[in-house]
Specification:
- The complex is a heterodimer.
- Chain A is mostly helical.
- Chain A is built from twelve helices and two strands.
- Chain A has a two-stranded antiparallel ribbon with strand order 1-2.
- In chain A, helix 4 packs across helix 7 and helix 6 crosses helix 10.
- Chain A is elongated.
- Chain A starts with a helix and ends with a helix.
- Chain B is mostly helical.
- In chain B, helix 12 crosses helix 14.
- In chain B, the strands form four sheets. Chain B has a two-stranded antiparallel sheet with strand order 1-4. A two-stranded antiparallel sheet of chain B has the order 2-3. Chain B has a two-stranded antiparallel sheet with strand order 5-6.
- Chain B has 16 helices and eight strands.
- Chain B starts with 10 loop residues before the first helix and ends in a 72-residue tail after the last strand.
- Chain B folds into two domains: 303 residues, Cytochrome Bc1 Complex, Chain C (Up-down Bundle); 112 residues, no CATH class.
- Classes of the chains: A mainly alpha, B mainly alpha.
């Protein structure tokens, strides 16, 4: 036993030639002290040699981004945290999401969220377009990320290609008519009816909420323009050649209509005819 | 030369005489034209199905002039811009042409589809009428079986027609159908490959479904409908009990002219409703679905409503896969139970029901009089249970649309469907049974005590009591001696003495109401107008 203890006493103790009578508590205290000393030394060396903390704001924010930061610190900071690095259990980090994401979420009123739930709903937007741009600029300068290009987003688009791409990539969730559909556990693909060109573009780029990201190497900007054109010029502008579209929900509302309109009308007609004698 | 006199008035008679001379049809025709049909609004529900079938045939023939049942690939170049230049099957291209380039094509297509939905809906409503009134009892069990077969053949007709446009939605439906066939143990893969001519989708399925849809299934439908109507003719229509109506007679109207005229009018009404729906409501907008491609499936892809219960049962079925360790292992997929076994059970139960009930009640007599649903609580409750079962399944077939539009979690909808499928039908049974007993009780109460007059009388000792108008002389305690005869018991004062409404006319009165005396001292000057003899009431003559 004694030889064991000897071996464990450590180098310093052996150098000092003290007998192995030190209490266990004091030994622990010593170890802690040494650890703290080593950490302080390493930390100090890092502070001396590493670039200064202030370097993160270098180059400083542009005017718009500074405005955006002011808005962020008032409206978004609760969930997304200081410097947009996110708060555990409340909101994700926004580093690297880009202005495309801000454009989509804030201009459609989804952010700021009303409450934590399966999915943020579209609401009347809280911020003006200018404020959205400022917020986007701030997030963009903070961590970079995808941006919605300027200008006409459906320049030279081909409706037929857009339709084909829409049916392959979008209709699984947003449905053939763009009216949206259910996903699991209270999540859903929203209706495309109120979406603007920029919002659709931003959604494809940033993949908000449950939507997958359709980056430029999956769907090229030209194809995105085709899809936007199909949604805006064909699905939304369509006059529904067949008459009232019953919400474009497919056969479910058609089944409802045949009972509520057809059968009801004909039962009344049969009451009427049988009542004539 | 003496001109021969031409008597116009004698022309029809002479012509008819000439026809009878040659074909000897007067005697059988007289029998036919004098045949009596009982009249009640609920007897017209089956005619809705018959008439929408006629509309189906008419519009369907129009569609075949322009439809091309081929899966050869063509490039669309018609008037619908968002699809121009898209490669697609000839079937889909011709369906688009019908919708956009053939004059009147779209309304014909929509009328065809609406009348198909109406055909099935009317079959179901008619079937419920027959069930709840006990019209399926001996001797009409065969007709009940033919009727249930008509539902299933109509189901096939609808499904094959749904597949013909070859748009994204039809292709998705076909894919599911092929999956269902594949799930059948042992024979599944052979069934599928022989129907599709190989692996799904193959190149032959559209032409095969076309010939099934325009020749085989309609032929079968026509045959079954003829047998159905022939049996109604032979066995005579059932009637409600009432004054002068017994198990051995038929009270109603002659086939000609009144019944035939009414039926002709009703056909026009059905045709009109279908035409209105075809013109006003868009159905199956195939141009949004695009051509069928295996990798395209839209959200809210549902079958038409009468197939939706199978979609629902599939959605509710837990993923219970049965692995049988034979050879390399044999799998019975969970799809087999809700889509093959369940409809099999439903066909069996629905066709055998008349025999089951007769055996249960040991009732093997002929029944030509109908029963009010309240008088047979057990049957009515069983029917309500079946309807509840069907409704839960159908709603579950659209549960993603309901979840999305009403902001409910889809998972919650699925579980609500699973639990509802087990709980709602027994609940419907219990509630319906109690309602039937309550209605029976009230009928008996009115027969015993009379109609509530709404007059409250205060007795000298301060008690209040309601004055009842007894329906018969009674026994001194105010108890009547009338027996329940299986028909409506008057429950309001103005229904006394008349089985139908006191004032005739459905939308507006066609006779003047009798003027009430202004006061007992001033009786009306005019005599009370002659009223028609009280028969069995106009609503059920």
């Amino acid at each position: 036993m004694t030889s064991d203890n000897d071996r464990r006493r450590g180098l310093l103790a052996r150098l000092r030639g003290r007998p192995a009578a030190r209490s266990r508590g004091r030994r622990r205290l010593g170890a802690a002290f040494r650890l703290i000393a080593a950490l302080t030394l390493a930390g100090g060396a890092y502070t001396v040699f590493a670039p200064g903390v202030q370097a993160q704001e270098n180059p400083p924010l542009t005017g718009a981004a500074a405005e955006g930061r002011a808005l962020f610190d008032v409206s978004c900071v609760t969930c997304h945290g200081r410097n947009a690095q996110g708060v555990e259990g409340r909101g994700p980090s926004l580093i690297g999401v880009g202005s495309a994401s801000v454009e989509f979420q804030v201009s459609s009123g989804r952010m700021p969220m009303a409450r934590q739930e399966a999915q943020a709903m579209r609401k009347p937007p809280v911020f003006t377009d200018e404020q959205v741009r400022q917020l986007g600029q701030y997030i963009q300068e903070l961590g970079g990320g995808p941006q919605v290009p300027q200008g006409n987003l459906r320049e030279g688009a081909n409706l037929a290609t857009g339709g084909e791409l829409f049916r392959i990539n979008c209709s699984q969730c947003h449905a053939f008519g763009g009216g949206g559909g259910a996903l699991s556990s209270g999540k859903y693909a929203p209706s495309l009816a109120p979406a603007s060109d920029a919002q659709i573009y931003a959604a494809m780029l940033s993949g908000p909420q449950n939507m997958p990201v359709f980056g430029d190497n999956q769907i090229t900007p030209e194809q995105k323009a085709d899809i936007i054109a199909y949604i805006q010029e064909s699905l939304k502008a369509d006059q529904d050649q067949g008459g009232f579209n019953l919400g474009r929900y497919g056969p479910s509302t058609e089944g409802l209509a045949i009972f509520l309109v057809g059968i009801v009308a004909l039962v009344f007609a049969s009451l009427w005819i049988a009542g004539k004698s | 030369m003496k001109r021969r006199k031409f008597d116009v008035a004698a022309v029809p008679g002479k012509a008819a005489g000439g026809v009878d001379d040659r074909f000897q049809v007067a005697t059988p025709l007289r029998k036919l034209l004098n045949k009596v049909f009982p009249d009640h609004w609920s007897f017209l529900l089956g005619e809705i199905a018959l008439f929408s079938f006629v509309v189906l045939l008419l519009t369907g023939v129009f569609l075949t002039f322009f439809y091309e049942p081929a899966m050869t690939e063509v490039v669309y170049n018609g008037s619908y811009a968002p699809l121009r230049g898209t490669p697609m099957s000839a079937a889909y291209a011709s369906s688009l042409d019908i919708s956009f380039d053939v004059r009147g094509g779209l309304i014909m297509r929509q009328m065809h589809h609406w009348s198909a939905l109406l055909f099935m809906a009317a079959i179901v409503v008619h079937m419920m009428r027959v069930f709840f009134t006990g019209a399926f009892r001996k001797p009409r069990e065969t007709n009940w079986i033919i009727g249930s077969l008509l539902f299933w053949v109509g189901f096939l007709a609808g499904f094959s027609g749904y597949s013909l446009p070859d748009d994204g939605l039809s292709g998705t439906g076909l894919r599911i159908a092929s999956g269902i066939m594949l799930s059948i143990p042992v024979v599944g893969s052979w069934v599928t490959s022989s129907i599709f001519g190989g692996e799904f989708p193959g190149e032959i399925i559209i032409s095969r479904f076309f010939i099934a849809h325009v020749l085989l299934i309609p032929g079968l439908l026509v045959a079954l409908i003829s047998a159905h109507l022939g049996l109604v003719f032979k066995q005579k229509h059932t009637q409600w009990p009432g004054p002068g109506r017994t198990n051995d007679n038929v009270v109603g109207e002659r086939m000609f002219p009144r019944y035939a005229l009414k039926q002709g009018g009703f056909f026009m009404v059905v045709f009109g409703v279908i035409a209105l729906m075809g013109g006003l409501f868009q159905i199956n907008p195939i141009w949004y679905f695009g051509p069928y491609e295996a990798w395209v499936v839209s959200a809210a892809s549902q079958p038409d409503w009468y197939v939706m219960f199978l979609d629902g049962s599939t959605r509710l079925m837990p993923a219970w896969e049965i692995n049988i360790p034979i050879g390399n292992g044999y799998v019975i997929p969970p799809l087999f139970w809700p889509t093959v076994v369940l409809p099999g059970i439903l066909v069996g139960l629905s066709t055998l029901y008349p025999f089951v009930e007769a055996r249960q009640l040991k009732d093997y007599r002929h029944h030509n009089l109908l029963q009010r649903p309240r008088d047979v609580p057990a049957r009515t409750a069983v029917g309500a249970m079946a309807v509840a079962f069907y409704i839960v399944l159908t709603l579950s077939g659209a549960n993603d649309v309901i979840a999305d539009k009403f902001h409910i979690s889809l998972n919650a909808m699925t579980w609500a469907g699973r639990i509802g499928l087990l709980i709602v039908p027994p609940l419907a049974y219990y509630v319906t049974y109690r309602i039937c007993l309550g209605l029976q009780q009230h009928d008996r109460e009115v027969l015993a005590h009379g109609v509530e007059t709404g007059i409250i009388r205060r007795l000298p000792d301060g008690r209040f009591e309601e004055v009842h108008q007894p329906l018969s002389a009674g026994d001194g305690h105010g108890h009547g001696e009338l027996d329940y005869v299986g028909w409506v018991v008057p429950k309001k004062m103005n229904r006394l003495g008349a089985l139908g409404p006191a004032i005739r006319g459905f939308f507006y009165p066609i006779e003047k109401p009798v003027e009430a005396p202004v006061s007992p001292g001033h009786p009306p000057v005019e005599p009370r107008p002659e009223r028609e003899e009280i028969g069995s009431g106009d609503s059920r003559r």
